[in-house]
Design brief:
Elements: H1 2-33, H2 35-38, E1 42-45, E2 48-52, H3 89-105, E3 129-130, H4 132-136, H5 139-145, H6 150-163, E4 177-178, H7 179-188
Antiparallel strand pairs: 1-2, 3-4
Helix pairs in contact: 6-7
Length: 190
């Protein structure tokens, strides 16, 4: 019985330590050191939250850059991928359909190599980034939809380069473009 009492006391101490004190300490540090990130990296426009830098959104209009596909239609609650394997007929059909749609939407040559992130959904279904190459393939469509002249089209190309981020810590991952941030900057482009 004595051992049982000690075990209960240790359980309560560690529950308070790891379940209350540690989370509050880490949350407090995050609020001070990384306030923007601690609040969800929210983007506010005209005093209204329009999204987060960390969660992808669907952009259906030809006036905007398209995000990568999402198996969960960008709903953050069930976050996850389709879990289809490479031998799945359903996955093969989805990839073929996405390729046809991307080529048709952007009026590309059928032989154009489409970046994989525009064909496959991300593992989380929430990835907000595409590659600079995928963004560049959409420039002609957007310029045409917005009736851009050659100077504005060149500014759009420059904008994609400016919004592009390099690999994290200069070695982790690949170059990427946050689609929401790019579309916000696109609306400001004159």
């Amino acid at each position: 019985m004595k051992t049982f009492g000690i075990a209960i006391k240790i359980f309560l101490v560690f529950t308070i330590l790891t379940g209350i004190i540690y989370p509050l300490l880490i949350t407090g540090i995050a609020q001070v050191v990384f306030p923007h990130q601690a609040h969800g990296s929210l983007i506010v426009k005209d005093n209204k939250i329009i999204g987060s830098e960390l969660i992808g959104q669907q952009f259906d209009s030809t006036l905007y850059f398209s995000s990568r596909p999402s198996a969960i239609t960008y709903n953050p609650l069930p976050s996850g991928g389709s879990n289809y394997g490479l031998t799945s007929t359903k996955l093969k059909n989805q990839v073929a359909d996405r390729k046809k749609q991307f080529i048709k939407l952007n009026q590309l040559n059928p032989a154009t190599e489409i970046p994989s992130e525009m064909l496959f959904a991300s593992a989380s279904g929430l990835d907000p980034h595409i590659s600079p190459e995928a963004a560049k393939l959409q420039i002609n469509r957007i310029a045409k939809a917005r009736y851009f002249n050659n100077v504005q089209k060149q500014k759009l190309k420059t904008l994609v380069e400016e919004i592009s981020e390099g690999p994290q810590l200069m070695c982790l991952g690949e170059s990427r473009v946050n689609v929401l941030l790019l579309n916000i900057a696109l609306d400001k482009l004159k």
